[in-house]
Amino acid sequence: MSGLKSNLSRFRGYFEQTARLMVGVPDYDTYLEHMRTRHPDQPAMTYPEFLDNRLEARYGAGKAGCC
Amino acid sequence: MARILNHVPWLFFAVLGAFALGTVALARGETINALWLVVAAVCTYLVSYRYYSLFIATRVMRLDPARPTPAMRHNDGLDYVPTNQYVLFGHHFAAIAGAGPLVGPVLAAQMGYLPGMLWILAGVVIAGAVQDFMILFVSMRRDGRSLGELIKAELGDIPGVIALFGTFMIMVIILAVLALVVVKALTNSPWGFFTVAATVPIALFMGVYMRFLRPGRIGEISVIGFFLLIAAILLGGQVAQSETLAPIFTLTGVQITWILIGYGFVASVLPVWLLLAPRDYLSTFLKVGTIVLLALCILLVAPPMKMPSVTRFVDGTGPVWSGSLFPFLFITIACGAVSGFHALISSGTTPKMVENEVHTRFIGYGGMLTESFVAIMALVAASCIEPGIYFAMNSPPAVLGTTAESAAQVINNWGFVITPEMITQTAQDVGEVSILSRAGGAPTLAVGMAQIFSDLFGGKAMMAFWYHFAILFEALFILTAVDAGTRAGRFMLQDLLGVFFKPLQRTASWAGNLIATGLCVAAWGYILYQGVIDPLGGINTFWPLFGISNQMLAGIALILATVVLFRMKRERYAWVTMVPATWLLICTLTAGVQKVFHSNPAIGFLAHAERFSTAAEEGRLLAPATSMEQMRQVIFNDYLDAALASLFVLVVLAVLIFGILSCLKALRSDRPTTREIPGDRVTAGAAE
């Protein structure tokens, strides 16, 4: 039973991650994990800062739309 | 023995697919079920994915699961993040899917569904999916660099600049044509216009909510936004019936054009969090959700195909777009079979997030197969409505006249049975005043979708709701593309203009921003305006131009992929990209030359200019011109369009010549000369 539950929550996690990435927002936890392990000396961005940063990356530079 | 047994299920799919395809192709006169098309398509995808994409992955590219990807080497938690392949597939698909695969097949249905279907299937397997997969591979092996940079690195600086310029021109054309689709759908439609206009305040509200009330709650605000959209559709129905409000929202094509131009300008200078980003959330989720819903509904409803498999218009006399099957079918259906735009996406964000090289097969090749399936669904939706209704909606007023009676008479003469009552009844069913001459794909697709959806949910009473839902779904992501495209075009333009006048290059400067945005909007706005006043409906003229430019970009991308294979010393396998590149070049060059020089004024721009010049000299006025001034304007536009088409032809030829030179140079070298980032395990000097 708990196996099914953890499978479901993992599936939900992937679903949310996919939906966010579709609009250009990668996983925040992955980013935090990356900052913690690779750059422990630097401060990580807060979630709103992170969103702003991704917004700028998606629309700021010359990104082409879809067809 | 086990190895042979492995192939048995695939043999089953191959036989089933061949049988379904045979059923579709050989049906003459009798109506077949749409499921045959679906089965034929899915089997083709499965078998080509299992065998052809595997061949490309293992023999041509030699994907190496142990080789570090850009995401591994540059992992920064932001742009470069190793991402689960299913999650990345979703991201990639949402980026490539747009209006293209929905509009092209609808327009192509004038020749019947068979030619379109065959091109969609053959095109995607041999050209489209190969292009997406190859460019994703090439970019991934080069730190996820963009198409322009890749062309510069592998072909040289000059073809790089040529390709960049070509990309900008395509952008302008695509924005104009997409905006034209929206104008055609919303003209004299108070319900549609109100609903689409309501998305602006809804998006603004979402932007403020995300920024100040509950920062970062993307899911929550998207759900709220979705319910507001549904409310806007329902309210739109009331507006359309109100005697005071309906006239306010009943606008002509020219009025909507000016509103769109103003909107495009304002939207692309506003901060992105306020309008563009929330609008993007809505349109992306609605797009993907509706595509899934449509797939399910087609499977459950299994509608019969009412359009003949081949119509008399294969001879090139069709009312929706002019020109014969070859080459124009192959540029009318671009996305869905092969789309150059995907080369920009495959060299965009996706290659930076690939976790393992072998995933590119699923993401690149598989993603494009899925997009192709969207095109098949659009073809089904357009072919399951009455052919008479299809032609009433898609033929220009210059052919049909402006009343249901005149339209029915013309269409009956073509051999498609339709009565004026059927036309007015359909308009009533979908809650519109008129459905005549709404070329551009969106309204036809909306009627088809409304028919399929209402079969399952709500019956006839809900048809008007589903029609406007479908219009909203398309208009929403087209407008997002217009915002985002204008913004991207502005950056490109500032880059190009900055070469001559430095201060313009500063993207943060307000003056530079406003000037470049203004120029960009003016460029697509000008073409849009010409399309709207065109008595042939605009789509007739501009959709082929868009198709040529898009396929041209695909040709350029495939030339790049060919050069890369030669430089890797894998020229033995270069046919994988050379065959589709050759076909695309034949189609685009023939179409480009015909658009300029064809003696039929409906096809050739120069012949059209000639006709107007002759009339002007004799002092006669031809529609749409109402004065000599406008006559001269039409002639000028013809020359402008001819110049654009010629320019595309020249760009392709230039890149082709540079490509051949690069291949020859690579052949003379006895070692790989490609500019890949070497894998970690490879020692210096022993590349590959």
Automatic annotation (TrEMBL), chain B:
Its main location: membrane. It comes from the Bacteria. Residues 33-591 form the CstA N-terminal domain. InterPro entries: CstA (IPR051605), CstA_N (IPR003706). The chain crosses the membrane at residues 7-27, 33-52, 93-113, 119-140, 161-183, 189-209, 221-240, 256-277, 284-305, 325-345, 373-393, 465-486, 507-529, 541-566, 573-593, 642-664. It is a multi-pass membrane protein. It is found in: Cell membrane. Keywords: Cell membrane, Membrane, Transmembrane, Transmembrane helix, Transport. PANTHER family: INNER MEMBRANE PEPTIDE TRANSPORTER (PTHR30252), PYRUVATE_PROTON SYMPORTER BTST (PTHR30252:SF3). This is Carbon starvation CstA family protein.
